């Protein structure tokens, strides 16, 4: 069994799908591992460190992929770059299939079995493989680091001989995985933190982190399926807006993380709300990639409006690539462990396993995932 690790092609993507630690564990599973030269550079991992862990360094992608049974990536590779892989080779990564149906069909045509790790079910057994959680957690952390760098003021209260510095006020909108880590990070840095969410259950979690939970009486609970939020009704939305409008004007830092599965990001912060904030305040919009929670967000950009900085970076976890790669690589390793027979040390995919069913996009030349198979037919 040969496993290939490719260097990422997307501009600015510094993460990598395996680390020397996971290479060692893949070797222990019985695999030969080939790492494309320079694959770890963005995450500060040297080729020599992969080699020390037992990998062969391939001078180019072609050599790494040649004869590979599994190809590990962060982002979806071009189908053409997988030429030479073993027939039916598994390609595993964050394949981002929505809106990219043509590319998914191309992967099917290339004869590989592609697995989208972001579709991993959020069940106990698969927690260790949950790339959405591992990366969202880091994005929440990094959002506060970026905010504090742009804020140009101290976050904690400081009582000094030269006088007292008041603590910064931080407001986190959406208290899921990313939001809770943003709350914890802002608290650690000494900010006075408040947060809101539309799921009532989030309130307890926010308060357990020492932050104040803000929610209107009009909005009792908008929990949807599977622990996610549902879209708000027009009345609920109006109530939320009124609450946020009065609160946000007093905030120094706002981190927005609100998402609804399969929908564009909900609009939470209007232009008028931004204009109500003091110059020097900072907003980080973690939902930028899905359209943004803030009316003025420009995905991938940092803008300043009326003195308020709005950060719309789309890959915040990728801005701490070394840690992000470490966790991402472990997520992938845990999934691969379920695909290999421990006795024979050969690939043994159980196509009836719910983890495989949920993540498999393509198989035997066809698009097989129910969300995409029809469009591809
Ligand atoms: P997400 O990224 O889909 O959304 C982020 C947050 O935004 C959520 O908390 C959501 O309630 C909130 N939100 C949506 N609309 C909003 C609005 N209009 N205003 C304010 N907030 C709004 O969520 P997530 O971080 O992936 O987590 C969702 C849930 O899944 C949580 O309950 C989490 O505990 C759970 N979870 C479970 C597992 C597991 O069991 N393995 C793993 C991860 C997360």
TrEMBL record:
Residues 148-312 form the Alanine dehydrogenase/pyridine nucleotide transhydrogenase NAD(H)-binding domain. One of its GO terms (cellular component) is plasma membrane. Its EC number is 7.1.1.1. GO terms for molecular function: NADP binding; oxidoreductase activity; proton-translocating NAD(P)+ transhydrogenase activity. Keywords: NAD, NADP, Nucleotide-binding, Translocase. Residues 4-139 form the Alanine dehydrogenase/pyridine nucleotide transhydrogenase N-terminal domain. It catalyses: NAD(+) + NADPH + H(+)(in) = NADH + NADP(+) + H(+)(out). GO terms for biological process: NADPH regeneration. Belongs to the AlaDH/PNT family. The transhydrogenation between NADH and NADP is coupled to respiration and ATP hydrolysis and functions as a proton pump across the membrane. This is NAD(P) transhydrogenase subunit alpha. It comes from Devosia geojensis.
């Amino acid at each position: 069994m040969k496993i290939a690790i490719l260097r990422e092609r997307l501009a600015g993507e510094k993460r990598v799908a395996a680390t020397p630690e996971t290479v060692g564990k893949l070797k222990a599973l019985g695999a030969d591992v080939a790492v494309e030269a320079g694959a770890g550079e963005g995450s500060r991992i040297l080729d020599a460190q992969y080699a020390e862990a037992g990998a062969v360094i391939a001078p180019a992608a072609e050599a790494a992929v040649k004869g590979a049974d599994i190809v590990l990536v962060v982002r979806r590779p071009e189908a053409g770059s997988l030429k030479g892989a073993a027939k039916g080779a598994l390609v595993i990564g964050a394949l981002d299939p929505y809106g990219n149906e043509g590319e998914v069909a191309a992967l099917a045509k290339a004869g590989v079995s592609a697995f989208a790790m972001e579709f991993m079910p959020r069940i106990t057994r698969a927690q260790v493989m949950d790339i959405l959680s591992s990366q969202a957690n880091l994005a929440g952390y990094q959002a506060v680091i970026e905010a504090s760098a742009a804020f140009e003021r101290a976050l904690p209260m400081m009582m000094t001989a030269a006088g007292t510095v008041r603590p910064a006020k931080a407001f986190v909108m959406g208290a899921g995985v990313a939001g809770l880590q943003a709350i914890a990070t802002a608290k650690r840095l000494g900010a006075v933190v408040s947060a809101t969410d539309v799921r009532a259950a989030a309130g307890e979690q926010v308060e357990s982190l020492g932050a104040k939970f803000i929610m209107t009486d009009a909005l009792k609970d908008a929990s949807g399926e599977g622990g996610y939020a549902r879209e708000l009704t027009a009345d609920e939305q109006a109530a939320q807006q009124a609450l946020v409008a009065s609160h946000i004007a007093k905030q120094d830092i706002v981190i927005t993380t609100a998402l609804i599965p399969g929908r564009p990001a909900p609009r939470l912060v209007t232009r008028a709300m931004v204009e109500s904030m003091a110059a020097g305040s900072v907003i980080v919009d973690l939902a930028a990639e899905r359209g943004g929670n803030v009316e003025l967000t420009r995905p991938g950009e940092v803008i300043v409006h009326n003195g308020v900085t709005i950060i719309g970076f789309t890959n915040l976890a990728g801005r701490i690539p070394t840690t992000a790669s470490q966790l991402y690589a472990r997520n992938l390793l845990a999934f691969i462990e379920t695909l290999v027979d421990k006795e024979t040390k050969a690939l043994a995919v159980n196509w009836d396993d719910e983890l495989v069913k949920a993540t498999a996009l393509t198989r035997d030349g066809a698009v097989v995932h129910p969300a995409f198979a029809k469009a591809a037919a």
